[in-house]
Amino acid sequence: MVKRGKSDNEFVFLPLGGVGEIGMNCALYGFGPEHHRQWIMVDCGITFANEMDEPGVDVIYPDVSFIEAEPQSLLGIIITHAHEDHFGALLTLYPKLNAPLYMTPFAAGLLEAKAASEPGAPKIVPREIKAGSHLTMGPFEIDCLPAAHSIPESLSLAIKTPLGTALHTGDWKIDETPVVGYVTDFNRLRALGDEGVLALICDSTNVVREGQSPSEADVARSITEIVAKAKNRVALTTFSSNIARIRAVAEAAVANGREVVVMGRAMRRAIDVARGLGYFDGLPNFLDDDAFGYLPRNKVVAL
What we know:
Strand 1 and strand 2 form a beta hairpin. The chain has a seven-stranded mixed sheet with strand order 1-2-3-4-7-8-9. A five-stranded mixed sheet has the order 10-11-12-13-14, with no helix packed on it. It contains eight helices and 17 strands. The chain is globular, with a radius of gyration of 21 Å. By secondary structure, it is of the alpha/beta class.
């Protein structure tokens, strides 16, 4: 995308990954004349390799050599949310970029926890943002908008320049009752549309499928019913970052007189970050996996 003004200034969208593929989300927005342009980066994620096409490769990073070659023109990096395909490349690529980094508290907490588990990881100190935050970076005015998603604190970005506005959605879902996290602010989106939007840069897996996904609140009710009917142990799996789903499992366990037993390092890491931010307030502490062996079978919900 390129929007040209009457002067030499241009408003440019330059994807480095995440277009026409699942994962490796990383985009540059530029403003100014061709040879004197300032940039912001939105997201810095990985994608997972395909064993058939990339044998022996675990993950793939976006190619940031273009912006790495002119670091003085990169004004900042904004992370929309803390899924690996949106922030998973930071520990590897951030030292090459070294621009101000903006993240929500949950994303920053997961990044810190991830760095603590990787020997030699760089020390990264992000600046905190949240829904409602406003950032000014050179010619860019950026509004952070709430977006419902399967992870807390997901953001959409309204990126405004003298030549117009681009709306970068990040990942999103239409969910009026997401249990945990933001509800998408449709009134703000309508207002932006009324003001005029040059381009919608939209990211939502399965957006081309017909129909509507159920609300997370509906899933929570189903989980409670399933646990209530079970006679022995119950095991549930989910992405470790889906804090709403984990809370639903915990509430189902409490409602049925069971304990939540946490299995897996990534699950424990995400839970610790979420509990520190208050997302599990009102719920008892979860048990570690050694409890699985001694709890009565009808008292276990393994996560």
